[in-house]
C-alpha cells in the first residue's frame, strides 16, 4: 500500500461524478483519484476536462486488472453493485459501494462473504449515518434511556422527485435497469437508520404502489409494517411524490418517547417506568412525570465526505467502518422483504426471508421490464457536485 | 313537546353520570333532566343524592314507556346502544347515543333506519367534532385548498389507559361486554374525524394486536391501512399503551400539506399545483413556492356540552345536527372492517363490507368471551364530571 490510496470511481453519473470530483480535489486525506470508469463517451469527455490526471476506462474489468488502483468507489446502476464489488475484492482492491449493496439480498450476501474471505475493506455509502441526530437517538436507545421499545413510526416522504429526475437516466425506475423504486433508491438510507437505531424486525408486511405519481415501472409509494421479537411494531411510510414531504421518526418505549424532526431530537424521558405505572396506578389515565428536552447538533453532518474519510482511514489506519457492507444487508433485507410481501398480496414475510422466492419473482418482473426506458436522456445533468437532495432533509 | 325537553340519561357510569349532572345543572338551554336509569343500586343511590328531582329507573323499558321523557341520552355498554335507541325512537323519543353507535354495523344500520322511519332526532356523541382545528382542516379540504388528497396519516396514541381503567367496569375490554378495544372505545372519535375530514376509503387492511399492554380480551394496539377511490392511501395508528402518546394528523395533497398537532393547524399551501410541477420541471427535486401558516383557535371547543346543546336545538328549533347518527355508521364501518381484516389474517376488506361475515366472526369471539371479566369492580369511580381524558389531547 502506498501512503496515499489510489482510488477509482466506477460510474461517473450524477453520484459518481460528485465522488470523483471530490476525491480529485484532494480533500480526502490519504486518498487521491487515479482513474474513473464509465461506458458513456460523453462522461469520459467530462472527466478529461474536469479531472486532469485521472486515467479513463470504458471497461470495468480493465480498470480492476490495471494494477493502478488500490480502492474503488462503485456508483453504477444498482443491479451491478455486488458483481463489480466481488470482482474488485477478488483482485485485491478495497471497495466502497453506493447503496443499496445490490438489488438482491442473495447476491449482496455473496459479496459480503467475498469481503470476509479476501479481508478487503468493504463499506457501503450510508452517508446519513454521519448525522449526529441519528447517532444520538441510537445512543439513547442503546443506553436503555427509552426502556423497551414499543413502536417506531417513520414518515419519510420528503424524497420528492419529478418526472425529469426519472428521465435523467434511462436505467432509472425500471425493474431491469434499476431493480426497484423508492425503497431501493431513496429510502435505503432510512431503512438502514431505522434498523441501526431500533434493531431488526422479525416480520415485514408491505404495500408497494406502482407509478402512483410518475411514469415508471416500479413503486413510488410504499408502506411497511414490521414486527419485532419483543412484540413491538413499526411503520414506515415513504414516497417520491409528496410536496412538501415529511421526515419524522417517532420511537416510543416504556421509558418515554423520541421524535426526530425539523432537524431536532425531541425527547420525553419518564421518571418512572410506564409499565410499573400501568399496573400500579389507581387512576385511569394518569400523568407520568417526565423530562422534556430538545437537542440540535451544532455542526453539519460529515455526509459523503465523512464516509469517504472513514473508508480511507479504515484502509490506512484500521479505523472501524461507520457503514460496513455487512450492515447494508440489513437494509436490503427489509426492502427485499417488502417487495416479496407486496408481490404476495401484502402478506407477512418472516425474517430471515426466502431469498430464492424473492429472486424468482424479481426475475419475472425483470423479464417483463422495458429495461432501458424510452426516455429522453438527460445525462448532461452530471454536475460533479454533491446535491442537497442526497442529504438529510427535514 | 314542552318548551323544555324532558331528558333522561340511560346508564350513569363514568360517562353517563357526567351527562346527567351536566344536564341537571341547567346549563343546556331547553333541556332538563327528569330521569335516570341504571341497573346498579349504588349508582341509583348516587343519583338520589346528586340529582334531586330526577326519577330513578332500574328498568330501561319502564323508563322508555313512562311518558315522562321526550329524549334519552344512551350511555350503557356499547353492545346495547342500538337496541335501546330503536326501542326509544319507536316509543316516540329523541335519542343521543354515546359512540360508537353499536358494536355491529349491521345493527347500527337498523337503528339509523328506525330513526329515518320515525322521524325522531337521532344523534351520536362525536364530541370532538366541536374542535375548531378539525373543523378548519375539513373546511380547507372541502374548499379544495389542499388539491386532491394523496395521503393521510394519523398517529393517535395518546389514549393512554392503565389496568385500573380496564378494571373499572367489569364489562370493559371483553368481546361480550364491550365488543372491542381501542378501536371501539377510544378511537371512534378519530375514526370519525378522519372520514369527516378526508372522506371514506374503499378498502381497509388492519392489524389489531390483543393484550399487548394490558390484561384484556381485546385489542389495545391497532394499525389501519386504507385506500381511497382516487388512489390515495391512509394510515391510522392507535393504542392505549403508550406514554406520552402522540396526536398528529398529517394530510398531503397536490396543493400542499396540513399537520394537526400540539393544538395547532399547520398548513403548507403551494402556489403552484405540484402535479403540474412534477411533469414540467426541468429539475430533479425542485423547491415549490408555498405559504406556511400556523393557526390555533382562541376558544376552547364546546365538547360534550356543544353536542348536548346542538341536540336540544335540533329538537326544538330544527338546527342541523353536528353529529347525526347516520355519520356514526361511517366510523363504525371502519372499525368493523378493521376487525374483519385482522381476523382474516390482515387481508384487505373492500367497502361496502360483508357485515354478516363480521357478525359471524364476532359471534365466535363473544361465545368464547368471559363476558364479564374477573376484575375488581371500581364503579365508585363515578365522578359526575367530564374527564379531561375524553377531550382532544395533544
Count of DSSP H/I helices of chain A = 13
The description of the largest β-sheet of chain A is: 9 strands, mixed
Beta content of chain A comes to: 15-25%
Low-confidence stretches of chain A: 374-380
Radius of gyration of chain A, whole Å: 22 Å
Query: What share of the residues of chain A lie within helices?
Result: 25-40%
Largest interface: A-B, 59 and 59 residues
Oligomer: homodimer
Q: What is the number of strand segments of chain A?
A: 15
Compile the SSE list and pairings.
Two copies of one chain form a homodimer.
Chain A: E1 5-10, H1 14-24, E2 31-37, H2 41-50, E3 55-57, H3 60-65, E4 71-74, H4 81-90, E5 94-98, H5 105-118, E6 122-125, H6 132-142, E7 149-156, H7 163-167, H8 182-185, H9 188-198, E8 203-210, E9 219-227, E10 233-239, E11 247-253, E12 256-261, E13 264-270, H10 274-280, E14 290-295, H11 303-317, H12 325-343, E15 349-350, H13 355-367
Parallel strand pairs in A: 1-2, 1-4, 2-3, 4-5, 5-6, 7-10
Antiparallel strand pairs in A: 7-11, 8-9, 8-15, 9-10, 11-12, 12-13, 13-14
Tell me what the structure shows.
Two copies of one chain form a homodimer. By secondary structure, chain A is α/β, with parallel strands linked by helices. Chain A has 13 helices and 15 strands. In chain A, the strands form two sheets. Chain A has a nine-stranded mixed sheet. In chain A, a hairpin with a 2-residue loop joins strand 11 and strand 12 (256-261). The two termini of chain A are 41 Å apart.
Amino acid at each position: 500500500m502506498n501512503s496515499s490510496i489510489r482510488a477509482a470511481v466506477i460510474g461517473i453519473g450524477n453520484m459518481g461524478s460528485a465522488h470523483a470530483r471530490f476525491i480529485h480535489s484532494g480533500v480526502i486525506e490519504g486518498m487521491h483519484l487515479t482513474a474513473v470508469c464509465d461506458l458513456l463517451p460523453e462522461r469520459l469527455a467530462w472527466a478529461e476536462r474536469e479531472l486532469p490526471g485521472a486515467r479513463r476506462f470504458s471497461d470495468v474489468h480493465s480498470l480492476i486488472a490495471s494494477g493502478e488502483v488500490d480502492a474503488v468507489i462503485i456508483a453504477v446502476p444498482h443491479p451491478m453493485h455486488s458483481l463489480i464489488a466481488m470482482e474488485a475484492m477478488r483482485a485485491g482492491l478495497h471497495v466502497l459501494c453506493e447503496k443499496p449493496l445490490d438489488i438482491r439480498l442473495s447476491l449482496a450476501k455473496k459479496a459480503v462473504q467475498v469481503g470476509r474471505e479476501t479481508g478487503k475493506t468493504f463499506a457501503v455509502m450510508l452517508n446519513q449515518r454521519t448525522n449526529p441526530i441519528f447517532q444520538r437517538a441510537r445512543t439513547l436507545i442503546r443506553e436503555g434511556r427509552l426502556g423497551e421499545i414499543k413502536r417506531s413510526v417513520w414518515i419519510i416522504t420528503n424524497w420528492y422527485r419529478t418526472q425529469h429526475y426519472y428521465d435523467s437516466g434511462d436505467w432509472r425506475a425500471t425493474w431491469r435497469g434499476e431493480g426497484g423504486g423508492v425503497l431501493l433508491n431513496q429510502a435505503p438510507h432510512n431503512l438502514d437508520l431505522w434498523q441501526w437505531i431500533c434493531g431488526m424486525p422479525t416480520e415485514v408486511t408491505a404495500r408497494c404502489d406502482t407509478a402512483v405519481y410518475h411514469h415508471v415501472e416500479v413503486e413510488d409509494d410504499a408502506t411497511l409494517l414490521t414486527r419485532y421479537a419483543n412484540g413491538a411494531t413499526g411503520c414506515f411510510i415513504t414516497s417520491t411524490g409528496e410536496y412538501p414531504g415529511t421526515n419524522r421518526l417517532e420511537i416510543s418505549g416504556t421509558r418515554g418517547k423520541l421524535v426526530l424532526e425539523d432537524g431536532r431530537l425531541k425527547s420525553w424521558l419518564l421518571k418512572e417506568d410506564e409499565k410499573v405505572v400501568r399496573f400500579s396506578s389507581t387512576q385511569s389515565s394518569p400523568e407520568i412525570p417526565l423530562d422534556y428536552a430538545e437537542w440540535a447538533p451544532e455542526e453539519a453532518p460529515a455526509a459523503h465526505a465523512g464516509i469517504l474519510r472513514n473508508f480511507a482511514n479504515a484502509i490506512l489506519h484500521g479505523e472501524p467502518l461507520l457503514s460496513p457492507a455487512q450492515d447494508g444487508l440489513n437494509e436490503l433485507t427489509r426492502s427485499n422483504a417488502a417487495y416479496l410481501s407486496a408481490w404476495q398480496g401484502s402478506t407477512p414475510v418472516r425474517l430471515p426471508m426466502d431469498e430464492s422466492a424473492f429472486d424468482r419473482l424479481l426475475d419475472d418482473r425483470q423479464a417483463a421490464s422495458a429495461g432501458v426506458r424510452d426516455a429522453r436522456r438527460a445525462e448532461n445533468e452530471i454536475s460533479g457536485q454533491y446535491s442537497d437532495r442526497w442529504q438529510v432533509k427535514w
